[in-house]
Write a structure and sequence with these properties.
Organism (chains A, B): Elongatibacter sediminis
Strand order of the largest sheet of chain A: 1-3-2
Protein name (chains A, B): MarR family transcriptional regulator
Helix content of chain A: 55-70%
CATH superfamily of the largest domain in chain A: Winged helix-like DNA-binding domain superfamily/Winged helix DNA-binding domain
GO biological process, one term (chains A, B): response to stress
Radius of gyration of chain A: 20 Å
InterPro entries (chains A, B): HTH_MarR-typ, MarR/SlyA-like, WH-like_DNA-bd_sf, WH_DNA-bd_sf
Number of helices of chain A: 7
Shape of chain A: elongated
CATH topology of the largest domain in chain A: Arc Repressor Mutant, subunit A
Largest interface: A-B, 63 and 63 residues
Strand content of chain A: 5-15%
Mean pLDDT of chain A: 94
GO molecular function, one term (chains A, B): DNA-binding transcription factor activity
Oligomer: homodimer
Structural class of chain A: mainly alpha
Chain lengths: 161, 161
Amino acid sequence: MTRPYLFDLILDHLPEAAHRRRAWLALLRCFTRIERELMQHFAQEYNSSLPRYDVLTALALSDNGLTMGDLATLLRVSKGNITGVVRRLKEDGLVRKVTSRKDRRVQSVTISPEGRRLWKRMHDDYDRLISELLAGRSDGQVQSLTRALERTLAAVNKPND
Amino acid sequence: MTRPYLFDLILDHLPEAAHRRRAWLALLRCFTRIERELMQHFAQEYNSSLPRYDVLTALALSDNGLTMGDLATLLRVSKGNITGVVRRLKEDGLVRKVTSRKDRRVQSVTISPEGRRLWKRMHDDYDRLISELLAGRSDGQVQSLTRALERTLAAVNKPND
DNA sequence: ACGCGTTAGTTTATACTTAAACCAATGCCC
DNA sequence: GGGCATTGGTTTAAGTATAAACTAACGCGT
């Protein structure tokens, strides 16, 4: 019925006891399913993308602007990546970028009024979409999933010694 | 202590009741954390990538080879994407690609012996890495996470009625 | 056999991503 | 103040991703 999917193929070849591999597969599917929904919505509705939204979010939530390095650290991406995304946002008038007077190596990036307006709309849409996508689960089920994921993340971050 | 992270910034600005947004944030963090680990390992160890591994996996688990369209459907990516990844795998001698004699539009892609050898190593590594990353969680905890994710995915796939 | 819609894949244009090389400004240390 | 390591960002090269335009082959109906 549903289109064939690589992960079903993998699942068929997985020993019953591969619990962790199954968990990762479930995580991967769940993530990519939701991410794709968000991505397509942003593309159609705003001709924009999740990386652009992330940069705008970082700037919108930071009062005094951020440097390129701040952005790279916050978003966990390379500095070269930030250079490109910010350049395109600037071309669209959504952010400003000025060289710091104290240290001429430093670029200070701030969100423009149009940028903030767009961000607000995207932000609301994002929340609404997530709510809709997860509407089939009760608050309790959602919170229990959150706890399981947070504990898993914590366990991954400090590997057992 | 840990480096500042956009998602912590967002979390600070989130109303207590945004359960679904919190769940998505947790899912996103957990996923990207593990994916990054896999990606870096594949890059360093095999000078390769997850998309390449995915294509090799699809071919390794399919007995008679696959067409470009089959690969695109299985991996849920565009056909143009497959064209590029398969071309590079072919250049590295990991796959073969021959035009079907029945229908000269169709390309039949198969994994080469070297491709299968590499895939086996990557596959074992992949399993091992996932096991290590999730070693801090008990089998029961892992299975409970899997169930929660699978139910969430099912709920996302058939929106509320 | 001709035309024509459909299908399979490739190409193109653009964006996002990284790592690594590079450039320029800073700030130290003597 | 001259040299030099460090730091902040950009550039470059390559891979990954999409959508949309395109090409070639098929197959069907007449």
